[in-house]
Design a protein that fits this description.
about 20% strand; Jelly Rolls; single chain; alpha+beta; 10 helices; about 30% helix
């Protein structure tokens, strides 16, 4: 009996040819949205993630909201310091980006993902040097399980692409929103510099606000959300991330070994510390693991803007800021260039292992 059962299990396992199924999915160039459009009722095996999806419980903890319009600068800096050290996440309101622009960019991302698949396929690629990179799962072939999301991204700074090379359905608003986020980033880096006890221009002088990557995510409605994730647990490999969520939500952060919901707040943007900022602050600021749960509602869209020169060639070396070091606080990381660190991050994918361990002294 047991021999027969073992043979049955072996035949089922052998019948699952993951590389072939990944390739077949990739070659459709229509992403997860293509599966949904085809009326799929069961999550394909390449997406099933038994380790992280059980359970998807979360606890309630209020994510700090920082009013950037406040005239009490000292209080603003202190709130950012406390949130960046303890949670690695905070929200900002009165940030200067009009609600109309925020709504329009979400609609632009939605239009991109909902446009005719033959038009969308023109942008489908795994060549990260392209002006616009659209695909499903940047780490499709390296991650333990695929995530239930499609993505497009462009490098918008320091060398923005020619407008005509951006998708027509979201071109103007993508440029407008990116310009607005660059202005916001300039302010945030000044405030974070002060929160670290440094001159307000310190992080900007290090070019932390020089690069910007615009990422438009789409998480289609999932028929079996308990089996897969919208995005598995990870940290961001840049300096700082500005996230705009739609009303569906699903973002969670890991705090004291518990998952905390980050519910959408009308008019607010979510800010989180990235790996490179944790590195140069010598662990004073925290790049915290976060994830996105899948949902029967959808499609959920979000815009994440990473402050990073990412895969652009770079020679500038980053390590713990000398002003933050002492005999009691020696450097905890080796130095790196942004390119080398992001290249390492891309090669690893979202495997659940913190990228910064690679540079730990």
């Amino acid at each position: 009996m047991f021999t027969k059962m073992a043979a049955t299990i072996a035949s089922v396992v052998s019948a699952y040819d993951r590389p072939t199924e990944l390739k077949a999915f990739d070659e459709t160039k229509s992403g997860v949205q293509g599966l949904v459009d085809a009326g799929i009722r069961h999550v394909p095996r390449i997406f099933i993630n038994p380790h992280e999806t059980s359970p998807k419980t979360s606890t309630t903890l209020e994510i700090p909201v920082v009013d950037l319009g406040s005239t009490d600068k000292a209080s603003t800096v202190e709130k950012i310091r406390a949130a960046s050290e303890k949670l690695g996440f905070f929200q900002v309101v009165n940030h200067g980006i009009p609600v109309s622009v925020m709504n329009d960019v979400l609609q632009g991302v939605r239009r991109f993902h909902e446009q005719d698949v033959e038009v969308k396929k023109q942008f489908y690629t795994r060549d990260n040097t392209r002006t616009v990179v659209y695909n499903s799962n940047f780490d499709l072939y390296t991650s333990p399980s695929a995530n239930w999301r499609d993505t497009f991204f462009s490098f918008m700074a320091p060398s923005p692409p020619p407008p005509e090379e951006l998708p027509e359905v979201c071109r103007d608003i993508q440029i407008e929103y990116s310009n607005q986020v660059m202005k916001l980033g300039s302010l945030l880096f000044r405030l974070i510099s002060e929160a670290l006890g440094l001159n307000e221009d310190h992080l900007r002088d290090l070019d932390c606000d020089k690069g910007l990557v615009f990422i438009g995510h789409c998480y289609p409605a999932c028929p079996q959300p308990d089996l897969t994730m919208g995005a598995t647990r990870h940290t961001d490999d840049g300096f700082l991330t500005v996230v705009l969520q739609d009303e569906i939500g699903g973002l969670q952060i890991l705090h004291q070994n518990q998952w905390i919901d980050v519910p959408p707040t009308p008019g607010a943007l979510v800010i989180n510390i990235g790996d490179l900022l944790q590195l140069i602050s010598n662990d004073k600021l925290r790049s915290v693991e976060h994830r996105v749960v899948s949902n029967e509602k959808g499609p959920r869209v979000s815009v994440a803007c990473f402050f990073s020169t990412s895969l652009a060639p770079s020679t500038k070396v980053y390590g713990p800021i000398k002003e933050l070091l002492s005999d009691d606080h020696p450097p905890r990381y080796r130095e790196t260039t942004v390119y080398d660190f992001v290249q390492y991050s891309f090669s690893k994918g979202l495997d659940g292992v913190p990228h910064l361990l690679h540079l730990k002294l």
